[in-house]
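User: Predict the full complex structure for these chains.
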Amino acid sequence: MEILLVEPDVLLARTYARALEQAGHAVNVAGTAQTAIHAADDTTPDLVVLEMQLVSHSGIEFLYEFRSYDDWRKVPVLALSQVPPGEFMGTWELLQSELGVQKYLYKPRTTLAKLLKTVDEFATIKP
Amino acid sequence: MGQSRQVGQQSPLLSEQLLLAIAEELKLPLLQIARRAELSQLENTTDGLKEMQTTADMAIRLLDSYLFGARLALEEEYRLQMEPVSVSSVLYDTGQQLDSLAKLYGVDLQLNIGGRFGPVMANRQGLQSALVSLGYSLIEALPNLGDKRVRLELAAHRCRYGIVAGLYSEKEQLTVEALRQGRRLSGHARQPLVTLTHGSGAGVFVADAILQAMDAELKPSRHHNLYGLGAILQPNLQTSLI
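Assistant: Here is the predicted structure of the two-chain assembly.
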């Protein structure tokens, strides 16, 4: 799969990208919402792995922009965030149905093994 | 004459907000180490050990800076012991402490101590702790603010308020208003410095609180054509004629 990894921390991005690449995926890394839009334009991703807490523009702002383009309306999004999921309880409906976040993983409790397994699940449901 | 703390007035170093920011900030290096260790296991190699060591060392330094400030604030005498301090030597030592982390993040850390400054009145350990904490936050944040190769300069210059020692880069880090707002939001918002970092910005607030304890001030400032954050320090007038 072509994966767009939106991760603001350079070291974590490097680690996640390497693990995903070793699992056979092609990974494009972006550190901000703006660079993520450009990266998606370069290589239309099959999956976006997204940190919700970014510099300047948040993950939600990125998603509004990302979903505004027809080409990217159905690209699945996996949230991998340092924000505890409980904080999004009130907006989960918006994230899921309007912005297309299909799964939410809390980063501090998500091992690489769990991430790879979840990404594989997306690969199997790829249209 | 030294200022004494009024009854009920708490040092910012002892605030629950700063403690929350530190706790939130320390999750990142622990997470980096945990995931890097897991990757090394998956690859069956040991080539991540250096990275893990640097990450852990810097987390310890940030924690040490906070504890240093907190211990001083808990003492009866609120003010730090002031002494004549060479800015150049503090910047040099700060650079030494930040060098490994800068390399890890791909930040080109440079030392500019060309100017001739007399000593300033400060607490050496306090000033160094503040600059290392500040550097920690900036090194982690800068790669997201600009080009892939980022330069960060440790430098000092004179201004009309005294001598400014700080860290500067080509990209503007924080405006005066953004820092002021960040101070208000620290501990209350996940990203008090949203234009600078995706984290809690604890390094900036630890530096801010330690400098306040030295009656110094952390301010956004310019160094030639660079932007940055600097500590405004007072020259030591006793030695200015030497």
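The mean pLDDT of chain A is 93.
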